[in-house]
Amino acid sequence: MSRERRAKRDSRNERAVSDRGERSARSASSGKRVATDGGTDSDIERAIRETHPALIAYITAGDPTLEETKAYVEALDRGGADLIELGLPFSEPIAEGPTIQAAINRSLEAGTTPDSFFELVDGLDVEAPLLVMTYYNMILQYGSEPAVEPFVERAAAAGLAGIIVPDLPAEESEPLREACENHGLDLVFIVAPTTDGERLETIMSQVSGFAYVQARLGTTGARADVSGATHDSLARLSEYSVPKAVGFGVSEGDHAAEIVEAGADGVIVGSALVDLIAEADEPAAALEAKAEELKRGAMRGAEDVPEPEQP
Amino acid sequence: MSHGNFEGYGGRHVPDLLQEPLEQLAAAYDEVSATDEFRAELDSYLEEFAGRPTPLYHARNLSERYGAEIYLKREDLLHGGAHKINNCLGQALLAKKAGRTRLIAETGAGQHGTATAMVGALLGLETEIYMGKKDVRRQGMNVFRMRLMGAEVNEVTRGNEGLADAVDAALEDFAENIDDTHYLVGSVVGPDPFPRMVRDFQSVIGREAREQFQERTGELPDAAVACVGGGSNAIGLFHAFRDDDVAFYGAEGGGEGSDSKRHAAPLARGTDDVIHGMKTRVIDEDVEVHSVSAGLDYPGVGPEHAMFRAVGRCEYTGITDEEALAAFRELSETEGIIPALESSHAVARAIQLAEDGEHDTILVNLSGRGDKDMETAAEKFDF
Fold it and tell me: Which residue ranges does the record assign to the Tryptophan synthase beta chain-like PALP domain (chain B) (predicted)?
């Protein structure tokens, strides 16, 4: 499954290179160089560089059911999402805004479990690499003894490319990072507006795939503007080579454009998509259209000269 | 590197956004709490506002009935009716010294919210309490008390409208307002520095009790008993005796039995886990968290208790709802003291120990009074 997905992705990435001109081609060639060096390295990092600027879409798996999640993931993939984060719900999340909280509750009520989640991923056939976002508890409790290995092994078998764990401090991430390395997965960390100095260095020394830059103080949730903290954070991270993707509060193509213009390699959108799932008459179509809008916005931000307004 | 480690338990398992404010809080705590000025000010509030020291009461009738000398540390006589005020005063004063102007807290039954509202009013700090809508409905009097003391009570309507949802809402507030706001955590739970900070503020219980017990009997007690929800009153009692030859017993909310699927006894029966920012013991996944006492109705426990359990320093037992209610009634009848349902778990455990006959002297932390539990009790007892 995972190999098939990778092959498909590679073919799409080649298309992306030919479509998107010099900048993408340059990133793609550096990606290829890494690959020929022998290390497979990061699928995720490669996807971000080759589709630059990348659109990273988050939805909660199992909201409202796993069957529908499958359709939504495919819609996002069609719409232009370059990476897709799937939330594996946990009953005691920390610092999620009301939108994602509600999605988590709907998913838990529908009976989503780690095993049913992995079965969903087993059956997914999309081009975008997939990440799982969940809490450390869910990882530790998978398998018969509290340990990280069984979860990571299963995630790799399902073809997931990376893991994001909001409540895992970088200082305590060693066991999970090792397991991820053993199974070829990336471990993505969130960098907050307050993260600086020694903590920032610790995180950046552990991170792989991309650095998830939290755009503002507070919790997840769609907002009406792009925070000034985004610019500060990107400036603070400019010396690190790992791709940076900005999330928290992104809901429109214009936000995506502004974020990419500020120097981000990718834009992460979650609550705005989850809202569509909860409220749109035809969520799959709405998600596809939203992904197109956001991807266009991100691309616009990458142009030196602003594109004419969309009709 | 790891923060606040209790033999591998504890830590700071929170999103990165909260790391920095917690680091700042830990630094402020280490710096301020050691100063004579802070201690003197806190001591004066504890004495004049909260009513410390609390008496050590020799429960003669109960002792006579069960054949061991049982002593009660009367935290139920404190302002607000429970040990909660010890911690709230400490944290609020610290927050004020650290330049914070606003307190937030979550509350389930309303006890911690009420204690937070009291110190908010006392110290002139803006106070906002998060409480699940379900709890707001059930605990009308406490909501009224909080509002009377000037606190804003925020009804949380998301999710299951309970304590866990109130915690989420409070964390969200904290994440957005870290510059001026202190999140006043009510027990020895959550990320570092809360477990050790709350322990230090509650340790006054054991310090007093140790001195009082020695004064009274010339010795130390053979055993110390306390109820354990999050575990702050138990740690508060135990801490002063940790290097003594005193056996520790923790009475958890055993609900329908710690072998059943409805209990709140993660130390008697649970698993290692990460929850609410800490690594600790948590009830098994297929168990529904339940205790007749709202204050014990919590799926996890403070990490220091998880450590005590792991190293064998304390024995933890689930006391069932039924056993707790029997002890609630027993202490009311024999001594004329109505204990909180939480504290009744400790009383029940002390009675078991007295009957076993292993210990001659038993010190029990009577952590709160039972006024708040009258309605629950009235439903259970047919007078």
Answer: 50-368
